[in-house]
Amino acid sequence: MDFSSASLADARREYLRTSTTGMPIAGLITWGTLALAMAAMGRDLPAWAVFTAAAAPVPLSMLIDRLRGVAGIRTENSANPVTQLFMQMIFVVALLIPFVIIAVNETKNLDLLVLGLAILAGMVWVPHGWGAEDPAGLRHFILRAVLCYAAYLFVPEAWRGAAIAGAAALTYVYAIAAMRKPSEAVKDTVMVP
Fold first, then answer.
1. What is the DSSP letter of 73?
2. What is the pLDDT of residues 97-130, one digit of tens each?
3. Between helices 110-122 and 136-154, what is the axis angle to 10°?
């Protein structure tokens, strides 16, 4: 598609058509695994595991798409300005991660690392939802932030990190069920006489 002359509606439709349902599946797997690992290992879990859970959904979603025979994320999608916005948001989130690292270093509180990365990783669903014309993106982020903050504030310290990661994982169940699927982009293009 030539995006230099495409309308915003066409660019959004193409973004949805080429988006991946593998991303929320990958997020559920990685954050769920982190929750289980934190429940089992507690403070003995290395901090790099939290970074892995936050970063792994993108490459894992690409693997899931490949195994399912779905196109998913491709380099030719990078010309789409909606895809560019989504990728720029990932870069913005990456620039905010040092703030979380500094906070954890100052407080020596690993739960803040889990909380910060869970919420920051959830921010990418906002531009995704806008790009796909799907309110589930913003709702996913709001649900995730509320559940993660609640876990941090109300769960006993021994289980807090696991509860935060579990809350993030649960929000992917919502995303899997509620988000618009790439096949819905085709429905949008059908013209009614």
1. S
2. 999 999 999 999 999 999 999 999 999 999 999 9
3. 170
